[in-house]
Design a protein that fits this description.
The complex is a heterodimer.
Chain A: E1 4-12, H1 19-28, E2 34-35, E3 47-49, H2 67-82, E4 99-104, H3 111-119, H4 133-141, E5 147-150, H5 156-169, E6 175-182, H6 186-194, E7 215-216, E8 218-226, H7 227-232, E9 240-249, H8 262-275, E10 284-286, H9 293-307, H10 320-323, H11 330-344, E11 346-347, E12 370-371, E13 376-381, E14 387-394
Parallel strand pairs in A: 3-7, 4-5, 4-6, 10-13
Antiparallel strand pairs in A: 1-8, 1-9, 2-3, 6-8, 9-14, 11-12, 13-14
Helix pairs in contact in A: 2-4, 5-11, 8-9
Chain B: E1 9-17, H1 19-22, H2 33-37, H3 47-62, E2 75-80, H4 86-98, H5 116-125, E3 130-134, H6 140-153, E4 159-166, H7 173-176, E5 185-193, H8 194-200, E6 207-215, H9 223-237, E7 243-248, H10 255-271, E8 273-277, H11 290-300, E9 306-311, E10 316-323
Parallel strand pairs in B: 2-3, 2-4, 7-8, 7-9
Antiparallel strand pairs in B: 1-5, 4-5, 6-10, 9-10
Helix pairs in contact in B: 3-5, 9-10
Classes of the chains: A alpha/beta, B alpha/beta.
Chain lengths: ~400, ~325
Amino acid sequence: MERVLITGLGVVSCLGLDLESYWRGLLAAHSTPHPVDDPDAQMRNRLLYGIGPVPPPPTDRSGRPGRTSTFAVHAGYQALRDAGLLDDFGDAGVDQTRMGVAVGTGVGDCSLPERARQEGVTPDGLDAFPFKVASAIASHLGLAGPVLSVSTACSASAYSVSLAADAIRDGQTDVMVAGGADGYTRVGVACFNRLGALDPERCRPFDADRRGTVFGEGAALMVLESESHARRRGHDRHYGVVEGAGWSCDGHHATAPESEAHQIVRAMRAALAEADVSPDEVDCVIPHGTGTPLNDVVESRALHRVLGPAAATLPVYSLKALLGHTGGAAGAFSLLTAALILERGVVPPNTPVARHDPECDIALHFGVPLPAEPRHVLVNAYAFGGNNISILVGRGER
Amino acid sequence: MIRPDIERVVLTGCGLVCPETEGGDGDGAWFDPVRHLGARGWRYLTPATRYVLAAAQLAMTDARFDPGTMADDDVGVVIGTNFAAAPVVGRFDEVVATGGADDLSPAEAPNFSVNIPASQISMRHGLRAFNLSLTNPIVAGLEAVLTLRTALGWGRARAGIAGGTEDRPDGGAAQAVGAPSASEGACCVILERAADARERGAPAGPEVADGFSVFLGKAVDDPGLLADAVGSRLAMILDGVTGPVAYAPPAGSFLLRDQVVEACTRWAAGAGVELTRLDLLGAAGHHFTVSPLLQLVGLAAEHGPALVLATSPHGHIAGVHLRPAS
């Protein structure tokens, strides 16, 4: 079966607006959420791992870009440029109809209707459609292959990467710009306030004193490419290989995970099976780890069921402690980070945890990067509605 | 295009709820939740969730499909939508701006997430293979069918529910698709691996033979490129088909839609395919992602090859080829 390589990365995050800034931010392991500057955000907790002003791309046939599309288009450009594909259109024999997009977004361009309501108007025409982030990427990058918009809440972008990999393996396309993007959502933060699911200090997964998550925003996009296409264009560099995915659904509750973790265990095992990788070959885990009390305990226990005693010692990288919960983009941020870990051979230090929850028997390292040379990184992403996915990313032969 | 070597998948049932089928036309009053969903359990669900739960139930009944006879991780769900959450999010935003987040109902708060309608199907029926929500403008309903079709081919499930659901949006969405006003509703279909359907004696339905969903990119501004883009995709999914094909053109009335229809007609004439255009429920486009599904369900009742297309004013185009199951 055709291997699916990760040949380019692009990121817009609270740590920086390009890949190297992002990596430096991971190594620094420090970030602070701030109250969002929104006069209509009438709520107790307005913390956000936010991003400063980012200039929007011009309005085009796909409509006016909102905050989420703006992040996504910037990250998409970076990813294509990083893969050496941005200058290849036309003469280099890269067929744009064989290049597509799969983007996960929980709230789409919600900034447009939220701003319109503030101004007392309603969005017209193309802007009335909230989920046009994938269209914006394709339109601005000139891609004319399959274009998917996945909105399975906080697992959306991990699903978009899995669907993109399937499309490449199916032969539908050669290249997919895949990942996720989400911008600040006033309504989303308000609803999490009402659900009592936000931490008043910061996002601190696996901390015994954690009280919920904290929203973040940004975009993480990857160029997925068939190995044969990369070879044909003479591109010999890749970050990693999308080796396998496992999908499942709790079918249990709108917001709470199923406490026995049957389905998240099944998703992890399915990803390993699809990748033909045994549990003892997993060298690092990037968990969903939101900081909500029950989720972190359930996921920790599930890791032990899948990986055995090694789950207590192998490196776990708790990304949301640094970025906050980027919603529909969260899975893609984890996958992009996994690709960097595989390429650079170290696991960045975790953001310090004041008091490690003994109910979460996993290994979090602090202070310095961990030299790891991992072979395979397991990424989990879960969502409202109990929608789970696990993806295994490997180094592959280089 | 769907890989030709994967498992054949057939459509064994469909269910639809919209003002046109329920005998009403305004602000949700056309829909009787008690009749469709029973006396309890729907109060805190959004209209789009209620509609899709009803459509899913009708589709399962139509297919004589009892998910309880299968393992719970054998049945998946894929739902397309653009506006399932938009009206409720707008209402929440007003509450937040005027009274604050504390005035929101905690029971309703999860409904801000657009994947709740699909999730409620899995929760109600215990369907645990997977649950996806797709949101491309207009084409997401057909994409739900194609995504489920592909997932069954990959062995991620043995059967599933694909569909679309919409609440009635504010603003200019209807104007964008050239409809006089916006509507709402849901449509679901049951897809199964052909061998499984045959074994359980499922009602005979068409095979979902092939399909595509792509972005037109620069072709939207170049008639020649557009003709090539549409023609090449149709040639792939209708490979080997000649003679009459029942045809539902893209719903709505806007410039790109008309250009796609023209390109499709020209390709057919050159390929020896005789498109028999049917004006089916959904053609007006004002049910957004549900519109092409309503057309697909209409075509499923035909007894020969059939083609439904959808396009968005943003530049998406999708198509599904149905053919009699062999």
